[in-house]
Amino acid sequence: MYAIEFTEDAKKDLQLLQRKAPQAVDKLAQLLSELRVHPRTGTGQAERLRHYQNETWSRRINREHRLVYEIHDNEVLVLVISAYGHY
To answer: Tens-of-pLDDT digits for all 87 residues of the chain?
Structure first.
């Protein structure tokens, strides 16, 4: 199973998401639990993003917000970069 860590910006995004889009928090929790097992497939239209140095993926939380994260297989880690807005 992958460990999940958050950047400082992602932590701020989570607080903002809880305040401005509380209905999206349940979906985000579901996506985070899926990331622990299989970060490259699952719900939320998982899509690999190009033009990033590390392996970076995006999943849809809702129409407005995306979950953007990096996968570090050598550390068995998923680093959440963003959880508010669209890239």
So the answer is: 999 999 999 999 999 999 999 999 999 999 999 999 999 999 999 999 999 999 999 999 999 999 999 999 999 999 999 999 976
Residue with token string 């607080």:
15
Cβ–Cβ < 8 Å for 37, 76? no
Q: Quick check: is 47 catalytic?
A: yes
Q: Which of 38, 47, 64, 75 is catalytic?
A: 47
The pTM of the full predicted model, rounded to 2 decimals, is 0.93
- Note if 86 is an active site residue: yes
Compute the distance between CA of residue 19 and CA of residue 3 in angstroms, rounded to an integer. 26
38, 64, 75, 86: the active-site residue: 86
